[in-house]
TrEMBL record:
<keyword id="KW-0808">Transferase</keyword>
<dbReference type="GO" id="GO:0016779">
    <property type="term" value="F:nucleotidyltransferase activity"/>
</dbReference>
<dbReference type="Pfam" id="PF01909">
    <property type="entry name" value="NTP_transf_2"/>
</dbReference>
<dbReference type="InterPro" id="IPR002934">
    <property type="entry name" value="Polymerase_NTP_transf_dom"/>
</dbReference>
<feature type="domain" description="Polymerase nucleotidyl transferase">
    <location>
        <begin position="17"/>
        <end position="54"/>
    </location>
</feature>
<protein>
    <submittedName>
        <fullName>Nucleotidyltransferase domain-containing protein</fullName>
        <ecNumber>2.7.7.-</ecNumber>
    </submittedName>
</protein>
<keyword id="KW-0548">Nucleotidyltransferase</keyword>
<dbReference type="InterPro" id="IPR043519">
    <property type="entry name" value="NT_sf"/>
</dbReference>
Length: 249
């Protein structure tokens, strides 16, 4: 049986890595699974490094003392840009959450305090509001995918469509309510924290598609109806999507 390393062991590995390879870092924050107590035997170390200045932000994957490290390097300006222009634009705040949930293992200083204040501000602001066009696109995509799922007689095809519907419904439910979203396991965690009932319905529907297709199809119809109702319901007739005029050879 593989042993799950303790946080103290991981902290020591990260501290030695920072001391040996990145001594000029003004903050070093352990985030991810180890910061939230959700680590598994193979969990990597998510490490956010803050410097006084970097020519460009970078991400690196390396191995330290046998443990994979996912490293994110920034200064305050690049951190701000990534949170505002890259993450928030897509409805997520992974960098900000690393700062809020994690521990700074470097000496405390004003730069870390500034970073913490920025992360708190980004998280509190919430994601950009979904405009009418965005909502219509999402409603249409979900409606057509649901039709494909309900009409499908092929278990493999149905499961593929269900795997498409799950994130579309979960993300729409969060974003329409002004909540931050996520990807992969973080999407499930966000949805579970916001609306456990819908999270359980989606999880159950996806499992049913794999084990009992007719029941899974019915379950997806129900959860899709619940998610779409507050934003206008299903959308097919009347949906239009003009291409930009410059899209021509």
């Amino acid at each position: 049986m593989t042993t799950i390393p303790s946080y103290d062991d991981i902290r020591a590995i990260a501290a030695r890595l920072v001391r040996q390879r990145y001594p000029t870092a003004v903050a070093a924050i352990i985030g991810g699974s180890f910061a939230t107590g959700r680590q598994t035997p193979s969990s990597d170390i998510d490490l956010l490094l803050l410097f006084e200045h970097v020519d460009c932000a970078w991400r690196d994957t390396l191995v330290a003392e046998g443990r994979t490290v996912e490293l994110f390097a920034h200064d305050v300006a690049t951190f701000t840009y990534f949170c505002k222009e890259i993450d928030a634009a897509g409805g997520t705040v992974p960098l900000a959450m690393m700062v809020l949930e994690g521990e700074n293992i470097a000496a405390p200083g004003p730069q870390h305090a500034q970073l913490l204040a920025l992360a708190q501000a980004f998280a509190a602001a919430g994601p950009p509001v979904l405009d009418v066009d965005n909502l219509q696109r999402r409603r249409y995509a979900i409606t057509t995918a649901l039709e494909d799922l309900v009409d499908s007689q092929h278990p493999g095809e149905a499961l593929a469509v269900a795997c498409q519907l799950y994130p579309a419904l979960a993300d729409l439910h969060l974003r329409a309510a002004g909540e931050w979203s996520g990807e992969g396991k973080h999407l499930f965690r966000r949805l579970q924290a916001f609306d456990a009932a819908i999270a359980d319905q989606l999880d159950g529907a996806l499992r049913l598609v794999a084990s009992d297709l007719p029941a899974g199809q019915h379950a997806f119809e129900q959860v899709a109806a619940a998610v779409l109702a507050p934003v206008g319901g299903p959308l097919l007739e009347g949906f239009t999507l003009p291409a930009p005029a410059h899209w021509r050879a």
